[in-house]
User: What shape does this take?
Amino acid sequence: MTALAQIHVGKKALGLDDDTYRAVLLRVTGKASAKDMLPDERRLVLTEFYRLGFKPLDKPRRIAGKRALEGPFAAKLQALWLAAWNLGLVRDRRDAALLAFVQRMTGIERTEWLREPNAARRVIEGLKAWLERDGGVDWSVTSQQPGWAARYGYRIAWAQWRKLEPKGTAVRFWSEIAIIIGRPLFSGKPTDAEWIAVMNQLGERIRSGYAR
Assistant: This one.
């Protein structure tokens, strides 16, 4: 979902009438229309919406007339592909692009036909190696790591943050996460659903930066 679409969803979720909505836009960016905003300005509006209580869950939706990816490895493959999208490694997030990647690696056209563990592992490990090599994702696990550090969402988000802020500190990272999810972190680290919102938001910033 684009930032512009999220802003309109946030307006409805927060129950803002047109006058209040435009007042928020003006206060945050000096512009009364989200259509006229630059990507960073839309991000500021979304950050304000999160502060006001908007908690989007950017869940994948079935497109009318299109069958969702199926099979025992489909969810894992799609999660890794979207991670590559949010790290700026792929330009096409669509299932068709993922299926083309799977076919190049295995010769198999559909994820529901990908049932042989060795073939599936080859694709999964190939994606993970790509994310590590070009995306900066650290997949290593040690016994000293706290549980939250092993979460998939944290690993991707931290790699995204290092792309956006190469000299940014961990304190600044967690401060930004709290802003994005709209709550303080003393009550607990982000849930999986909140990490999705974080990855999508940071991914949009990465892609906007590449576009400029």
Summary: Residues 74-134 form one domain.
